[in-house]
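Reopening this one. Same input as before:
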Amino acid sequence: MLEQFGWSDALQQQFIPYAAQGLIPARITVQQRGLYEIVTGIGELTATLAGKLAHDAVDGALPVTGDWVAVQARPTEGSATIQHVLPRSTTFIRRASGPGAARGQLVAVNVDVALLAASMNADLNARRIERYLATALESGADPVVVLTKADMCDDAAARIAEIEAVAMGVPVLAVSAVTGAGLDALRGYLAPGRTAVLLGSSGVGKSTLVNALAGRAQMATQAIREDDARGRHTTSHRELVLLPSGALILDTPGMRELGLWDAGEGMSTAFADIEALAAQCHFRDCGHDTEPGCAIVEALSTGALDAARWRAYGKLQRELEFQVGKEDPKVHAESRRVRIKRNKLHRAEMKFRKRLE
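Same output, byte for byte:
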C-alpha cells in the first residue's frame, strides 16, 4: 500500500533510524481539526501528534497532508501517534495571509508536479499566473499551467496564447472536465506513484477536475457565480487522492491571495526574460529608469517587453524585498535607499523633459 502512495528506496533509507525505534512509516492523506488520516503498510489509521512533536516543532515543521511520517501504530485500535516528520522533497510555501503577516504557510509538500489551475473565463489573469509560477518554481516541483472550463471559452486560442507568453516554456494545457477535452494530455503528467498538487483560486474547478480524473464524485463541488465569474470555496481541507491510474493528486482549498515567500530563485526563473535583459544593461547597478544604455528601457520602448509584465515583476520584487526587510533591518534600509535614489532620478528626468518642451 505504501508503494501506491509514493514510497521509494530513498525514503526507505531515510527511515532506517526510525525503524530502529520500533516505528513504522506512513503518509498523511487528510489533515483536519488536529486529526490525521494516514496510510501505512498495515492499512489506514487515524493519528494524532505526539506531545513532544507538538511542543518542540517550529513554524512549518508540524506535519501536513502529503508528509511522510514515522508513527507508533496501534492497529487493534485503528490509531497511531505521529512521532517524527521525514525530510520533505519539495515545499510550496506562501506568505501567511492577514495584515502584517511575517511568516510562511505551507500549502503543499512532497509533490512532484504543481498543477496551477485558472479558469478560462473573465477572471483569467496573467499576473496571477506569474505569481503562482514564481512560487511553484521555488518549491522544486515541476509546474504545469492548467486552464480549466475550456468548453465555456469562445476565444480559447487567444487566452492560451496570452498565458503561454508569460509561462516561459512551462506547459500550458486547456482542459474541460465536462467534455473531457485536454484530460488525456493532463494525465500524461500524472504517472503512477507521482504526486501532483492542484493550486488555484476558488471556483476554478479544481474539485471538478479531481472528480473527472478519479472517475467518481471524489470531491464536493459548487457552481461558479455568474455575476463576477468568481467561485465559491468548496474544498475546506487538503486531501491526497489516489487516482485509478496510480497517480496521486492533492486537492487544496482555493486561495484568495498568494503572497510570495522566499521565492528569489523562482522569480529568476519565472521572469528569465526580464533578468536576461537586465544583464545587458550598460551599468551593472542600472535602476532601469533614466540610465543610458538600459536594455529594459529600450525593450519597453520598442514593445519587446510588455509594460504590464515589467510592472508585475517590480511589484513582486518589492514584495520579496519587504519580506526580507522585516527579517533583516539592514537589508530593508538598503532597499529603501535604492528606491529613494531611483525616485530622485526619475523626478530629475521629468523636470529635464519639461524644460526641453
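So the earlier flakiness isn't reproducible anymore. For the record, The chain has eleven helices and 13 strands.
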